[in-house]
Amino acid sequence: MELKIANAPCSWGVEFADNPANPAWQTVLDEISDAGYLATELGPLGYLPTESGSLGSALSKRSLKLIAGTLFVHLHREDERENICRITHETCRILTEQGAEFLVVIDHVSSPRTDEAGQVETATRLNDRQWQAMMETLKEVGRICLQYGITPTLHPHAYIH
After folding, report:
1. Model confidence over 28-72: pLDDT tens digits?
2. For the chain, how many structural domains are there in total?
3. Residue 146 falls within a domain, yes or no?
């Protein structure tokens, strides 16, 4: 079996498409290609071009393929589910147009959870309602991915032992 490794805009610190500190997307793609990678993730929706022709051309020019998208959202916030579903549909559309296979799903963590990372005994946990909301949102994201033939993959930040 051949192991293939791709890269992603997050390696350049790109977590949000609208962050003014982001490097230019052209620079990120150039550097991914120059480093010898053959594929990249999409990064946050709107960082790379979202129009099929523009994105395809930008990737092709650098001999890159799109392998996956990224969904980095607050999965546990029920009031954000509708927007998360919209983002998932849009991302899956782009992935399908580019022949990509995967959607990397990451629960956006923020304070106090990030401040308490690794503190197994004392870290703040999602309450039952938040946990249930996250599970329902994950199920909906999975259903959307299925519609597009995209495989959702969960990027865990922690584990329970």
Report:
1. 999 999 999 999 999 999 999 999 999 999 999 999 999 999 999
2. 1
3. yes
